[in-house]
């Protein structure tokens, strides 16, 4: 049994190594891409600067103005941290890629390969992300150094930092299995481009990518409740909120546990959808 | 535009295509194509509207915490936002699919066919496809514009009065803004003849338009802000695109225009003419160095 396990590990390792080498080809693209990722932050800085300045001028007391607990520097810091979360949880091309492979029939090869579709996609993504972080850490560090003033409290305590990193790793897995499940719907619907678009939309809004989720109103629709029962908030909001100390103590650990539970649930869902889909699928020709 | 097909039949003069008719045919073909994927069309429309409403929601939330963003009150800001959507939807419906197709034509060598047709190539390339579903936000924009103007004209203190000439000027400057966007986009698309690929067209476009969707005053501070302001006003004049018509209509600062505003209005016209001319020149230059792709 142990022999087959090592064999399996070796297969996975080879697969991973090939993917890393494949990805290293794009390293310059990564550096430029990362710097571009932060470009929207520039307009956010100026927009929120103006908003907070106007609001502050109008408020009567001299204390620093805050929107739902976010002062100006918190707001900019939030957008910067969300960019970090998204670097972990976003999976460009995953959903449409799977749908295309199902449509083209390319999916057939995974039925006979030693590593199945989900396994090999996961390895490819891990390889992609690992290479990406190695290359992108420099531009990331550069931007955070440049905009360090928006973090007047500096680094959070070690335990918070650990939870922050754990939540980022989990957000990678969550993003992966969410998008894979969506892609596998291609077994049932031939064209899922518009479905993907709706998913992206929900993701953008409910994950906190667009703005801190505390800003969402409770009336007339209780959006707060909605984002709490959905997994999307872990893709962008949660890690940033942990870092900024918006979620602390027991609530923070509970959040992490719930995120973990979501990952487990989605792994199971992906497996079920995959086996159902394969059972339904028929491949023809070569 | 008058149809000149009868002239062609009776005289030996070089072929004069009827641009108006051709344009109508393009529009009709695009509708036929979109209607053959109806569900897709509906979903696209819904998602366009949702994007707009999400944006609207964000600013609604912001305005529940502050009464002003810079000089812009809530309804005035929504006039700005609506103007942005109107221009954006026109750009995405008419220019975006064609600019995208253009780089594809170059990559595959299919531009040959376009060059052979007896019609102005830039015209043909620019208007072949229309993405009708993108026009949903034109409607959203007009609705929000109407509602905000109603609020502004009916508010108790200092109600806005809109003169007929203001409406005309608004439409005129909307057109100028749209032309600026057209010129920029096709200049950008034409460069793919030299670069060979243009996958980054959308990305680049996204980052550029990221700057034009806000009132220009927000950049007027700090060294970085002023340099962004100067770059996107004079070098790549995207800040005048929405700002001039929106300010003209909502007039957030003073009841009357001052030299400052007039200068920007003139700049909008100059920018429109210049970017159209530049796109024409760049397009010509690019075509001269086009060398097809195998065969």
3D architecture notes:
The complex is a heterodimer of chains A (286) and B (295). Chain A is an all-alpha fold and 286 residues long. Chain A has helices at 2-24, 27-37, 39-58, 72-89, 94-104, 117-146, 158-184, 193-206, 223-229, 237-243, 249-280. The radius of gyration of chain A is 21 Å and the shape is globular. The mean pLDDT of chain A is 86. With 295 residues, chain B is mainly α. In chain B, 74% of the residues lie in helices and 1% in strands. Chain B has a two-stranded antiparallel sheet with strand order 1-2. In chain B, helix 8 (164-190) packs antiparallel against helix 12 (239-250). Chain B is globular and about 65 Å long. The A-B interface holds A 36, 39-40, 42-43, 46-47, 49-51, 54-55, 58, 67-68, 191, 193-195, 197-198, 201, 204-205, 210-211, 215-217 and B 39-40, 43-44, 46-47, 50-51, 54, 58, 61-62, 64-70, 203, 207, 210-211, 213-214, 217-219, 221, 224-225, 228.
Total strands of chain B = 2
Mean pLDDT of chain B: 82
Q: Beta-strand percentage of chain B?
A: under 5%
Helix content of chain A: 55-70%
Oligomer: heterodimer
Strand content of chain A: under 5%
The count of helical stretches of chain A stands at: 11
Rounded radius of gyration of chain B (Å) = 21 Å
Give the low-pLDDT segments of chain A.
none
- Strand pairing plus helix content of chain B: what structural class? mainly alpha
Q: Which sheet architecture does the biggest sheet of chain B show?
A: 2 strands, antiparallel
| Low-confidence runs of chain B | 1-9
Query: Number of helical segments of chain B?
Result: 13
Question: What topology does this entry show?
Answer:
The complex is a heterodimer of chains A (286) and B (295).
Chain A: H1 2-24, H2 27-37, H3 39-58, H4 72-89, H5 94-104, H6 117-146, H7 158-184, H8 193-206, H9 223-229, H10 237-243, H11 249-280
Helix pairs in contact in A: 1-6, 2-6, 3-4, 4-10, 5-7, 7-10, 7-11
Chain B: H1 5-10, H2 19-35, H3 38-65, E1 68-69, E2 72-73, H4 74-108, H5 111-116, H6 121-127, H7 136-154, H8 164-190, H9 192-195, H10 201-212, H11 222-235, H12 239-250, H13 259-288
Antiparallel strand pairs in B: 1-2
Helix pairs in contact in B: 3-4, 4-7, 4-8, 4-12, 8-12, 8-13, 12-13
């Amino acid at each position: 049994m142990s022999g087959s396990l090592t064999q399996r590990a070796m297969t996975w390792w080879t697969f991973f190594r090939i993917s890393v080498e494949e990805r290293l080809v794009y390293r310059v693209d990564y550096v430029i891409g990362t710097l571009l990722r932060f470009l929207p932050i520039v307009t956010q800085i100026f927009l929120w600067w103006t908003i907070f300045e106007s609001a502050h001028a109008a408020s009567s007391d001299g204390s620093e103005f805050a929107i739902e607990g976010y002062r100006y520097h918190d707001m900019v810091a939030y957008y910067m941290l969300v960019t970090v979360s998204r670097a972990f949880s976003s999976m460009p091309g995953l959903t449409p890629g799977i749908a295309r492979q199902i449509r083209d029939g390319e999916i057939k090869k995974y039925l006979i390969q030693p590593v199945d579709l989900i396994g090999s996609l996961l390895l490819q993504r891990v390889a992609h992300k690992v290479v990406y972080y190695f290359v992108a850490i420099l531009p990331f560090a550069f931007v955070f150094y440049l905009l360090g003033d928006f973090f007047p409290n500096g680094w959070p305590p070690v335990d918070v930092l650990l939870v922050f990193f754990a939540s980022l790793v989990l957000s990678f897995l969550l993003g992966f299995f969410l998008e894979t499940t969506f892609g596998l719907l291609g077994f049932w619907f031939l064209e899922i481009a518009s479905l993907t678009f709706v998913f992206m939309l929900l993701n953008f809004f409910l994950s906190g990518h667009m703005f801190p989720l505390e800003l969402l109103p409770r009336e007339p629709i209780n959006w707060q409740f909605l984002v709490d029962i959905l997994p999307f908030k872990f893709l962008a909001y949660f890690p940033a909120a942990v870092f900024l100390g918006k979620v602390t103590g027991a609530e923070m650990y509970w959040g992490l546990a719930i995120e973990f539970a979501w990952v487990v649930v989605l792994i199971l869902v992906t497996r079920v959808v995959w086996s159902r889909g394969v059972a339904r699928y028929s491949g023809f020709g070569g | 535009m008058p149809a000149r097909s009868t002239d062609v039949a009776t005289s030996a003069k070089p072929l004069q295509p009827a641009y108006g008719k051709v344009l109508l045919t393009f529009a009709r073909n695009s509708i036929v194509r979109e209607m053959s994927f109806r569900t897709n069309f509906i979903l696209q429309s819904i998602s366009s509207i949702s994007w707009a409403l999400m944006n609207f929601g964000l600013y609604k939330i912001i305005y529940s915490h502050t009464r002003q963003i810079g000089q812009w009150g809530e309804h005035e800001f929504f006039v700005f936002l609506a103007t942005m959507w109107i221009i954006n939807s026109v750009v995405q419906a008419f220019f975006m699919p064609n600019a995208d197709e253009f780089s594809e034509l170059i990559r595959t060598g299919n531009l040959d066919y376009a060059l052979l047709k007896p019609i102005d190539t830039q015209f043909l390339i620019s208007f072949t496809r229309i993405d009708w579903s993108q026009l949903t936000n034109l409607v959203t924009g007009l609705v929000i514009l109407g509602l905000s103007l109603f609020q502004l004209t009916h508010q108790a203190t200092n109600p806005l009065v809109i003169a007929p000439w203001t409406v005309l000027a608004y439409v005129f400057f909307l057109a100028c803004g749209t032309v600026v966007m057209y010129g920029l986009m096709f200049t950008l698309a034409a460069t793919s003849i030299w670069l060979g690929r243009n996958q980054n067209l959308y990305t680049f476009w996204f980052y550029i338009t990221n700057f034009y969707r806000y009132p220009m005053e927000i950049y007027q501070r700090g060294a970085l802000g002023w340099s962004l302001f100067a770059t996107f006003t004079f070098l790549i004049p995207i800040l005048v695109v929405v700002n001039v018509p929106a300010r003209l209509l909502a007039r957030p600062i003073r009841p009357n225009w001052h030299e400052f505003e007039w200068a920007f209005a003139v700049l909008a016209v100059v920018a429109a003419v210049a970017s159209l001319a530049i796109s024409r020149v760049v397009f010509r230059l690019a075509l001269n160095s086009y060398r097809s792709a195998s065969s």
